[in-house]
Amino acid sequence: MTTATTTELDVLGALLAFDFIGFAQKSAALDPAGPEYGRAVGAAFGIAARRRFPQGATPEEIRAYVAEFLGSLEAGAEDFDPAALEDLFAVGLHGAAAADGERPAPEPTMQAHLVLSLRMARELGLGPDEQRELLDEAARATAA
Predict the structure, then answer these.
(1) More exposed terminus of the chain, fewer Cβ within 10 Å: N or C?
(2) What distance in Å separates the CA atoms of residue 2 and residue 42, rounded to the nearest whole number?
């Protein structure tokens, strides 16, 4: 496992634990220009999405989930493009490429993966042990 992978999963772990000081400190060590930036958190997001939607989800179900998510935000919804979030779910759930074939910008993608992973972990009721399992599974997926 690379240092970048460990750092990313530490950032997500701190967020899931509501350790906001640890989250801020660990986030400072991330390198958005790094070639692996976002890969580990993206893997964790995909795992969480497949657990949240174990039977998969239609584009309409994803659209409704994204709309509900954006509507639930007290602030910051304008920072997220609904179509981009829907594409992230398509990739996370099905491994499909983005609808327009373009690779999304790394920083907004990382932010979306983090926030959506936190939301799904809460919806799934993941406690500390299940959160660690999610992070461990993401580490294995990233190493593969």
Answers:
(1) C
(2) 15
61-64 contacts: CB < 8 A, separation 24 or more?
A: 62/86, 62/89, 62/90, 62/93
Q: How many whole angstroms separate alpha carbon 26 and alpha carbon 64?
A: 33
What integer pLDDT is reported at residue 14 of this predicted model? 96
Whole-angstrom Cα distance, residue 42 to residue 121? 14
Name the burial class of residue 34, with classes exposed (0-12), middle (13-18) and buried (19+) by CB atoms within 10 angstroms of its CB: middle
76: pLDDT strictly greater than 90: no
Output b/e per residue, 109-126; b: 16+ Cβ within 10 A. bbbbbbbbbebbbeeeeb
- Model's pTM, two decimal places? 0.91
User: Smallest Cα–Cα separation from 114: which of 76, 63, 58?
Assistant: 76
What pLDDT is attached to residue 144? Answer: 81
User: CA separation (Å) from 104 to 91, 101, 109?
Assistant: 11, 9, 7
DSSP secondary-structure letter at 75?
S
Report DSSP state, residue 101: S
How confident is the model at residue 118, as a pLDDT? Answer: 95
